[in-house]
Structure formats: structure tokens, C-alpha cells
Amino acid sequence: MEPVTPSLFEVAEGIRYRFFTRRNGVSEGEFASLNCSVKVGDDPAKVRENMRRVASNLGCTVEKIFVLHQTHSASVVSVTSKEPFEKTPFADALVTNCPNVYLGIKTADCAPVLFADVENRIIGAAHAGWRGAVGGVLENTLTVMEETGASRGNILAMIGPCIAPQSYEVGQDMYDEFLKADVKAALFFTPADAGKYRFDLPGYIMARLERAGIGAAEWVGADTYLSEKDYFSFRRSSQKGERCGRQLSVIGLLDESLF
């Protein structure tokens, strides 16, 4: 599977986490090979096998991996049962204190953000593109974690592979819209060509997490756009006129008897 293993969580006992790459799946062509989304047009049977491989790597069954219909919103869902969703919710973040449950986020340039309060055994996972980040999905996730029993100062956050500033050129319209919502975001835009800017998505997410007062945050440093062998990138695929798969990022609580 060759998942990324971030350093911040290395000493975090009782959780299991992965930032999966696009490698070692069964999907073909533009979806090669560990595509974890049916919605993009891939063969559902191949996606099921990919998810089975993900689950095997995690040491669980596919039914224990909870995912969402992601819509670039700031909505958060609490997972209060180990039973699969009867109907997949439309939201962009998940929180739970249930052991043997895995929270999954699908991305292809947007940032997956995994959260853990190890002491209080509360975890979260958020899908943070620029719209979700400026809309408050990170802060909303932290609030739901606190409501579940977490202490904000104990929460660690790991920002997974996403599009990096050198690859993320945007227009004046996005710049203007962004600053209307958050004037402090100007610090994360660098002028590029005429009427263009480069936006630092992981830096912006890091700043919002630090402003929110969590214990620590880190970015894994992987650029989805530049690393074609390792990651799906919606921007890269769109420029080629291709469809784009999705990689999966996952975090789960282990049963206390296992550590």
C-alpha cells in the first residue's frame, strides 16, 4: 500500500492512521490504481476490491470504514455506532470516540486532515479544500470533538497530501472571494502571472489550526499535483482532459486491549 506515515502521530498510542497513495490497487487507466471512489466513473467492482485492500491494510473490514458524500461544506457528522451508515451523509468531516471504527476522507488535491486527542480517545477527519477551510470545517470538527469529550489543547492534527503552493495557481476571482470571507488569508497568496496568484492551502490550514488553539499540527509535505505516480490530482487530470480518482486518508481508534 505504501501509505505515508506522518511523524506527529508516531508516539500516539491507541490510534491507527494511513494517508494512502494511489499505488497497489486494481483500477486501470486514468483511475490506476488504488482509486477509492465510485462516483468518479470507475468500475464499482474494482473500487470494492481497492477498499477491501485498504481495509486489509488497516486490519478491519470495509464496513468499519466510514466515509461521506463530500460537498466542500463545513458540516460535521458524529459517528456514535459501529454499525455502517444506513444512508451515507452529505458532510465533510467525521468525529468519533468509538473503538474499531475508521473515519475516511477522499481527496485529489484538497487536504485530508486527521485529528486525535489520544488522552481522551477522540478522533476526527476532515476534507479541507479552500471552500471548506474558509467556511470553518476545521473549527467545526474541533468543536464536535470537544462536545464528544476532547480537550482542544490535547488535539494533534496531521494535514495529508494535497496540492502545494507551487502548483496551485488561482485567479483574481478566487482571491477576491477568499478575502471577503477571511481577510487574514492574504498572507497565503503570492502574486504570480498577471491577475494570478499562488495559494498556500496547507499553510492556510496550519494557520487556522494554530489560531484555533490545538496542541500541534503538521503537514506531511507531499504535493499531489507534482507526484503523479503517487497521488491523484484533480487539477492535473483536468488539464489533461481526464477523469480523476480519489485517494483515501483514514484514522481509527484501536480497542484498548490491543495496546
Topology:
Blueprint: E1 15-19, H1 44-58, E2 65-66, E3 76-79, E4 93-96, E5 102-107, E6 111-117, E7 122-128, H2 130-135, H3 137-148, E8 156-159, E9 169-171, H4 172-181, E10 189-191, E11 196-199, H5 201-212, E12 216-219, H6 234-240, E13 247-253
Parallel strand pairs: 2-5, 3-4, 8-12
Antiparallel strand pairs: 1-13, 4-7, 5-13, 6-7, 6-8, 9-11, 10-11
Provide tags for this entry.
23% strand, alpha+beta, CNF1/YfiH-like putative cysteine hydrolases, six-stranded mixed sheet, 259 residues, four-stranded mixed sheet
* Helix segment tally: 6
Q: Can you tell me the CATH superfamily of the domain at 15-150 and 157-162 and 223-258?
A: CNF1/YfiH-like putative cysteine hydrolases
Order of helices and strands: EHEEEEEEHHEEHEEHEHE
Unreliable spans are none
**Beta-strand content bin:** 15-25%
CATH topology of the domain at 15-150 and 157-162 and 223-258: CNF1/YfiH-like putative cysteine hydrolases
User: What's the total count of β strands?
Assistant: 13
**Largest sheet strand order:** 3-4-7-6-8-12
Sheet having the most strands: 6 strands, mixed
Structural class: alpha+beta
pLDDT averaged over residues = 95
Radius of gyration: 17 Å
Shape: globular
**Alpha-carbon distance between the two ends:** 23 Å
Q: Give the fraction of residues assigned to helices.
A: 10-25%
CATH class of the domain at 15-150 and 157-162 and 223-258: Alpha Beta
Q: Which CATH architecture of the domain at 15-150 and 157-162 and 223-258?
A: 4-Layer Sandwich
